[in-house]
Amino acid sequence: MSGWSWSPRQAMLQMCYQPASEAPPPPPIYGNPLPPPGPIPGPISNNGTTPAYYNPPPPSVPHLTGHQVPGGPPPMAASTRARGMPPGGQQIPAPAPAPAPAPAPTTATNSRKRKSDVAPDNTQEDLFPTDVPDIDSDDERLESLGGETCNSIRRKIRNWIDSGAQKVGEFQKTIGVSSKAYGSFMNRTGTWDGEGTDTFAKAHRFFKKRELQGLPLKANKPKKAKTAASAKATEEFLDVSNVDPLPGEADGTVPVYDTCNEIRKKIRPVLAKDGITQAAFIRALNKNLPEGKSVSAANLRYFMGRKGVRDGNTNITFYAAYVFFEKKRLQAGKPKTKFRVDMENAWGPKGFDIEHGANQQYTCFAGEEPIMDKYGKIDFVQRF
């Protein structure tokens, strides 16, 4: 047969040729199952086509954009379509983020104020509470004086009034006495002077009852913080060093032209000023006294506890306070008052008597009686 040739190589190629099957591809495999048992097909020896190897699908990685298992559904195409919008459908709104929890209200638990600064002062509810045990007016304990005297009751009354617990009229109404009876008792000075008065008995029962009930005997005044400005103002008020010494100041013989009552009236508002203590006032008085003389706290208390035009005139407080207030007058450039001029006319160049006390005895003729005027001068008048 002409035109045909045969060779062993061509015969082997024809024998090994396997046409591709027209069967449809196998269904997609999900979950990456293990490969089927059996030997893995390898390349066919002496085959000129591309060797065939078993290449399993890559492992599935969840939540990886664009990942697709071979033969699986196509990945979602990246587009500007809103999240949750299916193809051809309406937009599915994205879930709203959960609202942030509201911050818990903060409470001021670390206040820097001290309790004593925040606590209110005594009020009427504190001084006269309604939830205290009642004590009958016939209780025997109210009659016991203990160590009380007329002077101690007077001190308690003054402390009660001066603290602002009640006004004088309110206190008189509370204990049930008249203003005349109250004034008569308070103007006395003896230890037991006024023992038989209604004011002494009723005031004693009033304070004794409060003691048994555990109630305060005076109102607590608020303590004000001492500032540099207030301290400076106090120092300036008590300083009279820029005033020239008064005549006789060096040896303590300055003529006094004031009464004891008038000096006490001037001292009280000074001690009531904010920032001025009794000790500071005493130091200011002592600066005007000659060496060897000084005012003590006991001197000041005794003088302030007296009452009368001449009562306390021999006390060193009377003299020292007069010198201080006279310098304050000169420092302020104020003129002499009419009472001051009248005192000069009444007492002359020597001034008020500071040597003989109020209990001085006088010798007079029969039918005469010593009478003291408002300037403290003693005159003898006929009784008939």
Automatic annotation (TrEMBL):
<feature type="compositionally biased region" description="Pro residues">
    <location>
        <begin position="22"/>
        <end position="42"/>
    </location>
</feature>
<feature type="region of interest" description="Disordered">
    <location>
        <begin position="17"/>
        <end position="137"/>
    </location>
</feature>
<feature type="domain" description="DUF7726">
    <location>
        <begin position="254"/>
        <end position="334"/>
    </location>
</feature>
<feature type="domain" description="DUF7726">
    <location>
        <begin position="148"/>
        <end position="215"/>
    </location>
</feature>
<protein>
    <recommendedName>
        <fullName>DUF7726 domain-containing protein</fullName>
    </recommendedName>
</protein>
<dbReference type="Pfam" id="PF24852">
    <property type="entry name" value="DUF7726"/>
</dbReference>
<dbReference type="InterPro" id="IPR056143">
    <property type="entry name" value="DUF7726"/>
</dbReference>
<feature type="compositionally biased region" description="Pro residues">
    <location>
        <begin position="94"/>
        <end position="104"/>
    </location>
</feature>
